[in-house]
Amino acid sequence: MRLPVARAVEVCPVEVAVSVLGGTWKLTLVKHLLTGTKRFNELGRLVPLANTKTVTRQLRELEEDGIVQRTVHPEVPPRVEYRLTARGRSLAPLVTMMNDWGAEFAGETIRS
Description:
Blueprint: H1 3-9, H2 13-21, H3 26-33, E1 38-39, H4 40-46, H5 52-64, E2 68-73, E3 79-84, H6 86-89, H7 92-111
Antiparallel strand pairs: 1-3, 2-3
């Protein structure tokens, strides 16, 4: 267990969720992986404002926390794919609700 997650366990379940999912682009990466397995560059294209270093770090943390599975295929050039684990797929209702809420909020903000 990553140290930030272990510390969050001592506080409250909400803090555990924030520790696991509260990173730059993490929920967006999970949202895109809900539609199926993606290669690294494909994820980069889906999140164009994210830099490569950040996406790499966030995917590693999601992998370490058991949300994402990384598969390296022994090919030249190497093919690396990411997919959600069962625990990651269990986030679908949460991510969908957050996506809908964000879209509604953005729409209200634009109209204001």
